[in-house]
Amino acid sequence: STPPVNVTVTGAGGQIGYALLFRIASGQLLGRETPVRLRLLEIPPGLRAAEGTALELEDGAYPLLHGIDVTDDARAAFDGVNIALLVGARPRGPGMERSDLLEANGAIFGPQGEAINAGAADDVRVLVVGNPANTNALIASAHAPDISAERFTAMTRLDHNRAVAQLARHLHVPVRAIDGVVIWGNHSASQYPDITHATVDGRPVTDLVDERWLTDEFIPRVAKRGAEIIDVRGSSSAASAASAAIDHIHDWVNGTGERWTSAAIVSDGSYGVPEGLVSSFPVRSVDGAWRIVPGLAIDAFSRERIDASVAELVAERDAVRALGLL
Ligand code: NAI
């Protein structure tokens, strides 16, 4: 029988954790043949909530769930880890400057990177969900010198899924008919949802939508969807974020075939994105690794938007470097 895969979820007592863990336990992350062992990492104020979630996981009597540990010790949480979902992060508090936010999160993702470096399995895959996700992934990776930077990724799949869904709705087609949507850059309001390469059943989307809808409705809607959810739901996206995290890891492990998706991965210099930045690209997953879709023509409008988001990533990187976090 297949040995269990060690999956560690940080911030397990939070709202994304609550939406994520039951899906992992039921087999939606890795398939219904693969048993999992869950490790839930929290900080002391979140431990009780994580323990409560662990009790409910037990009550699910999931045949694939081979054990649950709850801890506030990062070394224990990441020992032998195959899949690390880094969800817990420090939210922006009142009066907090951007540099304060980066520093507070550096204090989380630096030590977690070290713990992953010390104990992770050779095939470890890391997905950072906690914001600022791209730069948190960069920090964690920098603290894990023995692990390939390709193994540290950040989540833009929620943005990607939002873009696909908005397009499908506008064009009255099933989501499955759409391919070739790209989220470029940072998981922030500066992100660029690009449909210039998108197709609907093989037809270019650019033949089907007008430019005003694209610039005035689609792009801001996708980029500001998080705020819309908070406004309507009364709290931030949780189940959709958990769902996107499942999609990201599922595709990374199982492959995408020819279809594209979006993921923030370490740049190899493609598309003018400075090497080493963790930036969102059009990707396929092949043989268990993300590959940037090569050779796309980038028009002037796209170039400007990509450059603006990448400039924000460079500024975040420079700020954390100045703080000694890289
Ligand atoms: P939440 O506040 O409900 O839960 C976060 C949990 O993380 C809390 O229980 C907290 O105790 C824990 N935590 C804080 N520091 C920790 C540490 N050092 N180690 C382990 N656990 C720690 O927040 P929620 O809604 O679950 O969101 C989590 C993060 O995901 C936030 O940073 C949010 O901005 C981000 N997010 C990212 C998205 C993306 O698309 N990349 C989408 C939605 C949310």
UniProtKB/TrEMBL annotation:
Its EC number is 1.1.1.37. Catalyzes the reversible oxidation of malate to oxaloacetate. This is Malate dehydrogenase. One of its GO terms (molecular function) is L-malate dehydrogenase (NAD+) activity. Belongs to the LDH/MDH superfamily. MDH type 2 family. It catalyses: (S)-malate + NAD(+) = oxaloacetate + NADH + H(+). Keywords: NAD, Oxidoreductase, Tricarboxylic acid cycle. CDD domains: MDH_chloroplast-like.
